[in-house]
Amino acid sequence: MVFKSKDKFAILLNSISSNIKESADFFADFKLNNVSDLKVFADKMKDYEHQGDTYVHDIIKELNNAFITPIEREDILLLAMNMDDVLDGLEHTAALFEMYSIINADEYMLKFVDAIKNCAYEIHAAVVTLSTKKLQNIREHAIKIKDLESVCDGIQRQSIKNLFTVEKDPIRIIQFKEIYENLEEIADYCQTVANTLESIIMKNA
Known about the structure:
mainly alpha; Methane Monooxygenase Hydroxylase, Chain G, domain 1; 6 helices; single chain
């Protein structure tokens, strides 16, 4: 067992992963009907991002005060920071939608978001598993995250190829390409979380 279920670090890491899962749900399910919805969307994602920063700050404070930690303190901090990168990426992408006044996500964006949402669920499930004796199950979640990241690599190639084929407005090309790249970067962040989790397993199983 890596953490006890009541361990303060387990609770904080679970809070971060729950926040990612909730924010990914909101990001995927929010309906953009007009331009005014974009501010509501971006502001809510900013709230999630701010909450995530608070959790990371709490972990840093607890690490500074703790004499003994359940696993290496560097691994606790790295996992927290890697998860925070996922949330930062979602918030930044929401801000791009508002900045560029994009209310109609295309099929590629929807595929990206669906894969990222699934990654968020796998991250949360893996972090919860840190407080059980079934550490091997974490690897299963990590593999699923990596598979989803590979899917996003393919989506990015398809999306950019299609963009340069069908879009004639150079400004729109720049805007959509940036959003595609940001969404793929979020998937990369998810894979980094998976790698960190696997490293923790190897050190503590």
